[in-house]
Amino acid sequence: MLPSQVIYSSSRFVPYIVLFVVSKILRSTGLYLSYGVLKTIHVIEFLFVIKVGTALCMLFLQKPFTGDHQLGKQQWGRVVRHAAINCLISLLWLYGLTQCGPLRAILVFEHSDLVVIAGAGALFTSSGSPAKTRGAVFFIIGIISLLLFDHDDTSHQEHPEGSQHHNGISHLFYHFINWMEIADHKGGVVLLFFTLCLHVGFSTAAKKLSVDVGGAKRLQALSSIVSVLLLSPLVLILIFTQTSSVSQWLPNFAPLFVITVFVFVLNYYVESLCSTKLEQCSLARFGAIASFTSAIVLSYFWRYGYAVVNHETREETLVISPEHMLSGGVIFSTAILLLATFTLSSPHSSSRGTFIGYSAAGLPLYQLHSKALLQKSSESVLKVLRNGLRQIVEDSNSRQIFYFLCINLVGYGPVLEASTY
Questions:
Q1: How would residue 339 be classed by pLDDT, with cut points 50, 70 and 90?
Q2: What does the radius of gyration of the chain's CA atoms come to, in whole angstroms?
Q3: What is the C-alpha separation between 246 and 254, in angstroms, rounded?
Q4: What is the 3-state secondary structure (H, E, C) of 236-297?
Q5: What angle do CA 141, 382, 92 make, to 5 degrees?
Q6: Residues sharing a CB contact under 8 Å with residue 125, sequence separation 6 or more, in sequence order
Q7: Rounded Cα distance, 209 and 143, in Å
Q8: Would you tell me how many other CB atoms lie within 10 Å of the CB of residue 83?
Q9: What is the three-class DSSP state of 353?
Q10: Per-position DSSP letters for 81-132, written without gaps between them
Q11: Distance (Å, rounded) from C-alpha 298 to C-alpha 105?
């Protein structure tokens, strides 16, 4: 037997799987810490401090300015654009975290790029198999269940005009959710889902840039350094307008350090290492199981404390309050999203049939699989909906029934919203 044909034991990959799972659990812990710190630190300042810590770690580990490969002006411009878009996506992600809590943020945002791309391909193209289409539908159902069946009792008392830490962003966000007539945490779910799509598209487009600048790790290090420079003017504006929370940086130094290591540095390097040792489908599945399970366990035990200051006596009282707790909708959504992850991350079978022998004339005989036949005739969901709407519009009776159904659904929407609350 040739060396390349040796079948290695699966125990060889167990250390990488354990390391990957532990990193995802630590990332979930860091996100719970982030939610608590964001109550006292402005989201822009929080991102600035995190980027400073990440840049220092990667500057020490990667040494991006050494080496023979020097960047030109055009490449530096692309790195600056990469850092600016990354900062925007990170701000949207952090603000979505503040609105719906870490549990729901993990359920919506912590998905592998493979899962999202496979779902989008099944929905918007005709290249996906029926199994992928079912997985994409399950994924959409999991997100929608957080909007319809998740009754989060956490109420946000502060109005955007009275928000201390997110004035401009809160003002725009509250106008959006008032226009959509949805609750705060549901608006956060919508924002995180939109941010997830942006993040996947951004990560896919950045792969070519990582090759041009000398590798993904070097690009990450350079982008972190440039992000610090881009965020510095915004932090100075906050300081000069007296809306800054710089005084809270030092008391939260330990949580900020843990968040930087767990969420941004350790998770990135472990994922980069495991992606070279394990298949992407395995990473997507183990990552979803570890992230979702740890988020649910942490939500059961985690409590947030904040200090209430009595201005007359100058005394501080620590208040412990549970926020964004578990609900039946969250459990249902977790199960559906895990099912969607397993379906969308399943390896694509390229086999069209199995060789079973030869005919009397000496020709090879194959047994075709039913999956291959279904895959050949599969169509995208949008194409099926478009054909169905065309058939409805062409027939007068079907068209009248469809219009009547739409009118009933429009009238039933406010009734459903009122009954929910």
A1: very high
A2: 25
A3: 15
A4: HHHHHCCCCCHHHCCCCHHHHHHHHHHHHHHHHHHHHHHHHHCCHHHHHHHHHHHHHHHHHH
A5: 55
A6: 380
A7: 32
A8: 22
A9: strand
A10: HHHHHHHHHHHHHHHHHHHHHHHHHHHHH---HHHHHHHHHHHHSS-S-HHH
A11: 13
CA-closest candidate to residue 20, choices 315, 345, 280: 280
Enter the DSSP assignment of 226.
H
Q: pLDDT-derived band of residue 328, with 50, 70 and 90 as boundaries?
A: confident
- Distance of alpha carbon 405 from alpha carbon 268, whole angstroms: 49
Q: How many whole angstroms separate alpha carbon 320 and alpha carbon 340?
A: 36
Backbone phi, psi, residue 354, to 5°: -120, 130
Residue 335 neighbours by CB under 8 Å, 6+ apart: none
* Tens digit of each residue's pLDDT (9 = 90 or more) over 243-300: 667 788 888 899 999 999 999 999 999 999 999 888 889 999 999 999 999 999 998 8
Q: Is the pLDDT of residue 226 over 60?
A: yes
**Does the pLDDT at position 180 exceed 80?**
no
Residue listed under structure tokens 């399970």: 293
Instruction: State which amino acid sits at residue 50.
Output: I
Cβ contact 104:298 at 8 Å? no
Instruction: Let me know: does 323 contact 304? Beta carbons within 8 Å.
Output: yes
User: How far is Cα of residue 405 from the mean position of the Cα atoms in its chain?
Assistant: 35
The residue with greater pLDDT, 294 or 303, is: 294
Looking at residue 12, its pLDDT comes to 82
Say if strands 315-321 and 304-310 run parallel, antiparallel, or are unpaired.
antiparallel
Please measure the distance between the N-terminal and C-terminal CA atoms of the chain and give it in whole angstroms. Answer: 68
In total, the chain counts a number of residues equal to 421
Residue 123 parent element (H or E): helix 113-124
Closest CA to 18 of 345, 286, 341: 286
Contact 232, 226 (CB under 8 A): no
DSSP 349: P
Question: How far is the C-alpha of 382 from the C-alpha of 338, rounded, in Å?
Answer: 24
Identify the residue with better confidence: 100 or 9: 100
Q: Which of 295, 336, 323 is nearest to 99 (CA)?
A: 323
Q: Is the pLDDT of residue 371 over 60?
A: no
Instruction: Match 């395995």 to its residue by tokens.
Output: 282
Look up the pTM and report it. 0.76
Closest CA relative to residue 378, chosen from 117, 115, 116, 121:
121
By three-state DSSP, how is residue 107 classified? helix
Q: Which residues contact 4 (CB under 8 A, 6 or more apart)?
A: none
Q: Encoding tokens for residue 129?
A: 């198999």
